[in-house]
Design goal:
Blueprint lengths: L19 H11 L6 E5 L2 H4 L18 H9 L4 E5 H7 L8 E4 L22 H9 L4 E10 L4 H17 L3 E8 L10 H14 L3 E4 L10 H11 L4 E5 L6 H13 L5 E4 L1 H4 L3 H17 L3 H8 L8
Parallel strand pairs: 1-2, 1-8, 2-3, 3-4, 4-5, 5-6, 6-7, 7-8
């Protein structure tokens, strides 16, 4: 995929004139000058507690949180996404990583059958800006909305205000939007996924992370995703990676999401960090080969298998 130039970056109108160059800098960093996003999602230590980091089928290296930062440093990623405190503890040792601060989180302990989900904001923007001023390489923010929850209006209001404030400071924003709650009977319904993408656009997000829709009416998941990609407009759509599968299956899904479904990247967590450091680093390179350089699945698999290297 050819790289983009700075003048090809669409700067939202809510970015203050004096911060336009900062926004462009951050956009170019996050997308590795391609316009596509390879997001390494490291926010699950709150979302899923320790379930995703220790247990059967998970490499023992993942039990140590620094594993995430070693992968982010040695692999090829656009941004590493995590909560402010997690980043604050390790960023000084890994200053080269592009960080995206996840502004809200909740655990998975309270189920939807008990109460509709609400993910409260954990910190204020000023705390994040102070970290940036102190030298942490923060390029953006992330926020989760559970569309269909009885608390959706609160989360949308928080996200909308956060996006306006972040853009004014030259930061990107990625919204995680998942239909979830007692009112939602099919969380991966293609129409709902498309609706979530449109909500992200209307709130002003730069990118939206959604779950891949379920196959429906003879369409594959990637074919169903195309409607969501259209609905997202100038808000780039990326898909969540989901639980760990073999590399060829994952890379094939990713290739189809981009080239059939119109996604502009990926947002992958468990599929990367549950592996050994060497394997995880190779997978980030294979993912980035597809996401950022339009490699075929076969060529990306060669990168993953160590038969070829990939670097930007």
């Amino acid at each position: 995929m050819p790289k983009i130039t700075r003048d090809q970056v669409r700067v939202p109108a809510d970015v203050m004139p004096e911060m336009r160059e900062v926004y462009i800098d951050n956009y170019m960093k996050a997308t590795r000058e391609t316009g596509r996003l390879m997001l390494f999602a490291c926010d699950q230590k709150i979302e899923h507690l320790n379930d995703d980091f220790y247990g059967e089928g998970i490499d023992i290296a993942d039990a140590e949180p620094e594993h995430l930062f070693r992968i982010g440093s040695q692999g090829v990623c656009g941004v590493v996404a995590g909560q402010r405190g997690l980043i604050a503890q390790y960023a000084a040792d890994y200053p080269e990583i592009n960080y995206l601060v996840k502004m809200n989180s909740k655990t998975h302990l309270v189920k939807t059958s008990q109460e509709d989900p609400y993910s409260p904001q954990l910190t204020c923007l000023d705390a994040v800006l102070s970290m940036r001023d102190a030298g942490v390489n923060i390029v953006g923010l992330g926020y989760t909305i559970y569309l269909g929850s009885e608390y959706e209006s609160t989360m949308m209001a928080e996200a909308g205000e956060l996006i306006a404030q972040a853009h004014a400071q030259g930061l990107l924003v990625v919204l995680w939007i998942y239909p979830r709650g007692k009112a939602v009977t099919a969380e991966k319904d293609p129409g709902l996924i498309a609706g979530a993408a449109g909500v992200a656009l209307c709130l002003g997000a730069d990118f939206v992370k959604v779950n891949p829709p379920k196959p429906e009416d003879g369409r594959t998941s990637a074919e169903a995703l195309k409607v969501a990609s259209m609905a997202s407009g100038r808000c780039g759509l990326v898909c969540a990676g989901g639980s760990t599968v073999d590399a060829e299956t994952f890379l094939t899904q990713l290739h189809d999401q981009i080239h059939v479904g119109g996604a502009v990247g990926n947002a992958t967590g468990r599929n990367i960090h549950q592996r050994s450091l060497d394997e995880a680093v190779r997978l980030t390179k294979a993912i980035s080969a597809i996401t950022l350089a339009d490699y075929s699945v076969a060529d990306a698999l060669a990168v993953f298998n160590g038969e070829a290297d990939f670097a930007l």
